Amino acid sequence: MSKLNIFTRGFIKENAVFVLFLGLCPTLGTTTSAINGLAMGLATTFVLVMSNIVVSMVKSLIPDKVRIPAFIVIIATFVTVVELTMQAFLPDLFEVLGLFIPLIVVNCVILGRAEAFASKNNVFDSALDGFGMGLGFAFALTVLGGIREILGSGALFGFNFYEGDGMLIFVLAPGAFIVLGYLIAISNKINSKA
Amino acid sequence: MASKTESTFRNMLIALFVVSFISATTLGYVYEFTKGPIAIAKLKKKIAAIKKVVPEFTNDPNADMYKIVSDIEGDSLEFYPAYKDSVLTGTAIKTFSDLGFTKRIYLMVGFLPDGSIQNISLLEHAETPGLGDKMDKKKSNWSEQFNGKNPANYKLTVTKDGGDVDAITAATISSRAYADAVDRAYKILMANK
Amino acid sequence: MEYLLIIISAVFVNNIVLAKFLGVCPFIGVSKKVETALGMTGAVMFVMVIATIVTYLIQKYVLEVYGIQFMQTITFILVIASLVQLVEIILKKVSPALFQALGIFLPLITTNCAVLGVAILAAGNKGFGLIESVVFAVANAIGFGLALIIFAGLREHLDLVNVPKGMKGVPIAFVVAGLLAMAFMGFTGIA
């Protein structure tokens, strides 16, 4: 597999959210606006890349039977680093994303990539994979967040398009499910054509 | 492919111990590093909330903060006095209530020296979006009904319970909690004058 | 805090899946048949309740006492991972049939955001004592099961209906989930 391929497949062909259906909780829970989705996506990408790198570095040192707990500790460490850093330097964003920051640790994308890729490939490829999957995830979240923001509050990245409220339902729970459903359908269409 | 370490009991134990140890020390270091900025961010937020609810002050309310034990075991309220050149212009009280729908809610209530309410700021809550979250000034003006009222002649319970507070439609529980928190602050303020 | 209020809130109004978005992965993956949904709910409830108890105790008597709350994420997830391992071992010995039936879904409970989410929420609520936390955990597990089982029933129906090609399978499932979430929003009036 070429290096470029490793990086780009995370965007469309094997997009974590639209194709692999991983990491759905934060996808639905943090996408009330484009910027929230983007922030969550980037935080997750950071953890994904770092843990992929570390897992790839120690893969031959950790006995097979304890690899899952070991991976979990590694991932949880980076999640806590993100938690603390955000609390210190981006407190407003931290409050908005709330519970979902510590929940990055159970984002199936991260453990999934550690197990499926980083534990079997070299550091550079693992980092690339982390970036590709992570940014693809961030992309999905930003798109979902953007659509919900436009339809639900008439703004995008905070810039208002029209006065007054949009269709509130899109910023609330049901809207998340519905928009995601349609996005997956669109992604299926794109992938089947490619 | 590099050789893999065997899954012997000894190796497993060592591996887990080393990973945990490195993780704990890394986090300890990051924690120390971020402790300062986190405290600063929290303080900024607190002072901003205090500024919203009491008249102008020249002191440092946080430095002059004192705690008074509340009616709930193990919990106290934080009193932040506001002085303008040594004259008490108001007291901001961080109060709470457990009567809410999800978790404990926190308010910052600003009282003038005569006991009347200057303003109230919502600090922390997890009430239902679209309903209970109307307690938040960003979502609706509901909470402004408290401003200017003196609890000496304004009963701090919802009208359903015989009080003077107009509950949020379909969010009686959240409204009750809000009133309860304000009432708690008032009662303890008066008891400790 | 009133127990009834905690229960109604967790099961209906703030349903863990449909309102809080926790536990969505198994929601989509397991809900194809009502039987698997039931089995999953049972396993999740068991892990969720015990995990909440253990993590509550750890939060109160270790993390807060030593001022190391930043270790919460790591300790909590390790507790959950160990509990799931324990459940697997016990289940294998006590009821191999059930163990087989649950298959891959058992280890997946570790990454179920609902379990970690509930533990963190209970530990973070200063108004909760141990008993309230347990009630909260049980109620949330019931809410999870409720959403899962209703959804499984709906999906069994969907398989028999004509759905536009592009929407078949997961997409239409999400749209239906959205409608279910909308229905649950009606419960907020109970307050």
Percent in strands of chain B: 15-25%
β-strand number of chain B:
5
For the record, give the distance between the C-alpha atoms at the N and C termini of chain B, rounded to a whole number: 75 Å
The assigned structural class of chain B equals alpha+beta
Work out the count of structural domains of chain B: 1
Q: What is the average of the pLDDT values of chain C?
A: 83
Please mark out the parts of chain B with pLDDT under 50 across 5 or more consecutive residues, or reply none. Answer: none
Q: Tell me, rounded to a whole number, the average pLDDT of chain B.
A: 84
The oligomeric status of these chains comes to: heterotrimer
Number of domains of chain C: 1
What does it look like?
The complex is a heterotrimer of chains A (194), B (193) and C (191). Chain A starts with a helix and ends with a helix. Chain A has one domain. Chain A is mostly helical and 194 residues long. In chain A, a hairpin with a 2-residue loop joins β1 and β2. Chain A has a two-stranded antiparallel sheet. Chain A has eight helices and two strands; from the N terminus they run αααααααββα. In chain A, α3 packs antiparallel against α7, α4 packs across α5 and α6 packs antiparallel against α7. Chain B is elongated, with a radius of gyration of 23 Å. Chain B has a five-stranded antiparallel sheet, with helices on both faces. The longest helix of chain B is centred in the N-terminal third of the chain and has 45 residues. By secondary structure, chain B is of the alpha+beta class. Chain C has 191 residues and is an all-alpha fold. Chain C is built from nine helices and no strands. At the B-C interface, α1 and α2 of B face α1 of C.
